């Protein structure tokens, strides 16, 4: 039970990262303000993850930890949709959302709950995301300057000296949402499958409330390839299709001016195609042009869900 007045449930989505998941759950169990419940959405892992919660497994006798094992991999979006749906049925105040690679400082949620007490009108919070090498992963917390194009910009590193910074979008890496608002806006869009579901959900939150970045709340993001390094050298990634497609769908549903937003969207797509001719995509031009064509087309048609052509090699998701 939480030591503070406000309570929270932590939702953790995992797939085939048993060791990281163990570290992530340990960090949640060591919080200075404990979660009421930790819901682990096991996205049909094949690495023996379920053994952590059975028999003599590390978390088998932790009453706060509950594993929910999926019969198939729903993707990150489907996992978070399921986890949030379960969390909102619990009598709690807040719901945390994170993947299995988020390792929280012991006072992470104490800091967020303190900020929530100080700003009771705010229904969304997030902490500072730090990479294992010490860099701030600034693209995890962003602002929007054009609400028709929905172009996001990372919060500048210089702004992290402030106690709180107003943001417009966060990733599901230590996101914190008031349960009362979840009851109103619903759960993340499972049809996004992976990538972009957190951005779309942030926009639903922003339609009702500010979102605050609490810089004193910190977590380590043990991601394999930091997103802030993607631009250095292009490497094909099966997930990029979903990111592009889901962005198109998000603009169509959340642009402040639908007509102007659609016009800007076509301009953005044309510019993306133009970039495929630059040296960065040498050797991959045909591949990326095919991805863009399919992602843009499916996004415009509202064709969401899992696409069998864009999955990890050898995966049976």
Automatic annotation (TrEMBL):
Under InterPro entries, the record lists: Glyco_trans_2-like, Nucleotide-diphossugar_trans
| Matches recorded under Gene3D superfamilies | Spore Coat Polysaccharide Biosynthesis Protein SpsA, Chain A (3.90.550.10)
- Chain ranges of the Glycosyltransferase 2-like domain: 11-171
Q: Which GO MF terms are attached to this record?
A: transferase activity
Q: Which SUPFAM superfamilies match?
A: Nucleotide-diphospho-sugar transferases
**What domain of life is recorded for the organism?**
Bacteria
Family that this chain belongs to: Belongs to the glycosyltransferase 2 family.
According to UniProt, the name of this protein is Glycosyl transferase family 2
User: In which organism is this protein found?
Assistant: Furfurilactobacillus curtus
Its taxonomic path starts at: Bacteria, Bacillati, Bacillota, Bacilli, Lactobacillales
């Amino acid at each position: 039970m939480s030591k503070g007045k406000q309570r929270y449930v932590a939702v953790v989505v995992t797939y085939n990262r048993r060791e990281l998941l163990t570290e992530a759950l340990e960090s949640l169990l060591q919080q200075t303000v404990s979660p009421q419940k930790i819901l682990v959405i096991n996205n049909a892992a094949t690495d023996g993850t379920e053994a952590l919660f059975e028999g003599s497994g590390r978390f088998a006798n932790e009453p706060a930890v509950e594993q929910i094992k999926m019969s198939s991999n729903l993707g990150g979006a489907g996992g978070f949709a399921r986890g949030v749906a379960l969390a909102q049925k619990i009598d709690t105040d807040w719901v945390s959302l994170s993947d299995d690679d988020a390792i929280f400082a012991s006072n992470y949620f104490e800091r967020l709950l303190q900020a929530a007490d100080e700003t009771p009108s705010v229904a969304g919070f997030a902490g500072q995301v730090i990479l294992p090498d010490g860099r701030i992963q600034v693209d995890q917390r962003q602002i929007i300057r054009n609400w028709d194009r929905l172009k996001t910009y990372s919060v500048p590193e210089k702004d992290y000296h402030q106690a709180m910074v107003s943001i417009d979008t966060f990733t599901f890496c230590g996101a914190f949402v008031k349960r009362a608002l979840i009851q109103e806006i619903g759960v993340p869009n499972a049809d996004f499958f992976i990538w972009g579901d957190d951005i779309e959900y942030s926009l639903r939150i922003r339609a009702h409330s500010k979102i605050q970045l609490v810089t004193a709340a910190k977590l380590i993001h043990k991601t394999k390839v930091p997103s802030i390094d993607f631009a250095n050298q292009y490497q094909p990634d099966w997930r990029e299709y979903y990111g592009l497609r889901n962005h198109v769908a998000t603009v169509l549903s959340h642009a402040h001016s639908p007509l102007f937003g659609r016009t800007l969207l076509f301009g953005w797509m044309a510019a993306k195609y133009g970039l495929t001719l630059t040296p960065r995509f040498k050797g991959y031009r045909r591949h990326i042009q095919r991805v863009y064509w399919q992602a843009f087309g499916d996004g415009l048609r509202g064709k969401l869900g899992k696409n069998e052509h864009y999955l990890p090699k050898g995966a049976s998701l």
